[in-house]
Amino acid sequence: MKWKNKGHEYDDLFQTINSKKQFYLFGMGDYGVQFLNMFENEIQIKGFIDNNPSKQGTVLGNKCCYSIEDIELAGDEGIIVTMSQIARPSAIEQLKILNYVERKDFIVIEEFISIYYVYKYNKVYFSSISFLPSTVCNLNCRHCLNFNPFAKKYFVRKWDELVRDVDLFFSCVDYIMLFHVSGGEPLLYKYTADIIQYIDQKYGHKINTLRFVTNGTIVPDDEVIEKISQCKCNVELTVDDYRDAVPEYKDAFDKLINKLQKYNINYYINKVDSWIDLAPEKTDYTYMTEEELQKHREECNQTWQELRDGKLYNCNYAAYATVAGIAGEQDLEEVYDLTEFVPEKKKELIEFRLGYTTKGYTNFCKKCRGFTLENTDEVKVAEQV
Question: Could you give the CA distance from residue 224 to residue 156 in angstroms, rounded to a whole number?
């Protein structure tokens, strides 16, 4: 999105949010549960909406789950879309078909969290951030969204750089729903447990969930797992299940799960049927005009940014592509320098985090299909090069 009224882009939307008395949460999954945990004492949540028949009629946190067909939205009620970037495009299209208007009848979770707190309490709340200590990985997935198959070498950060970024980030941000430590394969990086422990000890009170991810093929030493188990904030490990693609790691997967259970570490097994393909090697949108590129970026449901070298990168996948050497350096317009942040510009920081930049797109948009409704190309999970 292109900045037109920096620092005031969401003035009208906050008034719309403020006019609503009750909300439904569309998506009874991970984000929906985390949002409920953060907001159940802040706003009136009427219930969940979910397209999964097995969830409809169930109750979570005293909130019943309905199908979208069961809902008749009153004028003072709204819907908060609490789905991941992959599931979201079809849900938003579904709402539009039912004549619900975005930013009038419904709003996405990232916008709600940040706009609500900065306008009501003058606090900087983020939905999430991506933090990559290293891109080192023992797999070589053809459609890796870190674009590792294109990289000539791995990107490995020093301990001092990690600490400096974390400290700077939390000097600017009051609270975050999901602080996500990723990779590469984090369990191959020697400081992963230490940085998890550092974040927990210094900033655990500012985090709803501190999560890191593993591809399920590495069994860490007891010392690593023990450090993580000592954390006091809500630490979760996402274990990607790639056993169908790399069956040689089935034993390692089982051993990892047993070790996590032994040390009482919260974990979630993530198994999906397919991946989305951003296809940078066969996408060419260089013919697009400025306006067309801005529209392409606005229609992309990509919701993540990366924290690196004291900066926020507008699109984490564009940042990954730069590190992998397939996107060139990013323009200054695509980056927010946290060292220049001042409290008077909290709303500008929020706007950047929600996708606003001076030019309204990233250079990588010219090579990326994006998380759009039109990008229906599904590829095999963890297919190895």
Answer: 19
Closest by CA to 119, choosing from 241, 18, 240, 246, is 18
| 283 and 361 within one domain | yes
How high is the pLDDT of residue 376? 81
Residues 71 and 187 in one domain: no
Domain that holds residue 101: 11-120
Shared-domain flag, residues 280 and 361: yes
CB 98 within 8 A of CB 51: no
What distance in Å separates the CA atoms of residue 33 and residue 61, rounded to the nearest whole number? 9
Q: Would you give the distance in Å from CA 148 to the centre of its chain?
A: 19
Could you give the C-alpha distances from 46 to 22, 80, 289, 321, in angstroms and in order?
A: 6, 11, 43, 41
By the 8 A CB rule, do 265 and 237 touch?
yes
pLDDT tens string 172-215: 999 999 999 999 999 999 999 999 999 999 999 999 999 999 99
For residues 383 and 245, is the Cβ–Cβ distance under 8 A?
yes
Q: What is the pTM of this model?
A: 0.95
Helix, strand, coil in percent for the chain, rounding step 5: 35, 20, 45
Whether 129 and 116 map to the same domain: the answer is no
